[in-house]
Amino acid sequence: MSGGIVATGDEAKAFVKALCRKKKFAKATHNTWAVVLPDGTPVKNDDGESGAGIVILRMLEREGLTGHIIVVTRWFGGTKLGGDRFRRVQDAVRIYLDDIG
C-alpha cells in the first residue's frame, strides 16, 4: 500500500505513474487506487482488479478524507483469493488511515 497527497486527477495519475516506474511496483499484477479530490470528485482505477477501486473509494468517503490517494498493490502468487481479496484491500486501506491518524 502506498499513499500521498494530490489535488487533481492529473496529480493522481502522475502519482501512480511515478510509483509504477519503481521496479517493484512495475512488476505488480495490480496497482488499484482511489482518491476523493479536494473538490469532492471521486476518482478510481481498478487496474484489472475488478471492484477493488470502489472498495478504496468507499472507505475514503466514509472517513470524509479528501486529497489523499491510496494505491493498493498486489502481486499474483498463484492462488485466486476470491472475496478475500476485498478484505485484504480493506486491511491495506485501514493501515494507511491509521498511519495518517
Unreliable spans: none
| Span between termini | 16 Å
Task: Please compute the radius of gyration using only Cα atoms.
Answer: 13 Å
Proportion of helical residues: 40-55%
Domain Impact N-terminal: 7-94
Family: Belongs to the IMPACT family.
Protein name: Putative IMPACT (Imprinted ancient) family translation regulator
Organism: Yoonia ponticola
What does this structure look like?
With 101 residues, the chain is an alpha+beta fold. The protein has a single domain, classed as 2-Layer Sandwich (Ribosomal Protein S5, domain 2), CATH 3.30.230.30. 46% of the residues lie in helices and 22% in strands. The chain is built from four helices and four strands. It has a four-stranded antiparallel sheet, sandwiched between helices. Strand 2 and strand 3 form a beta hairpin. Helix 3 packs parallel to helix 4. It starts with a strand and ends with a helix. The mean pLDDT is 91.
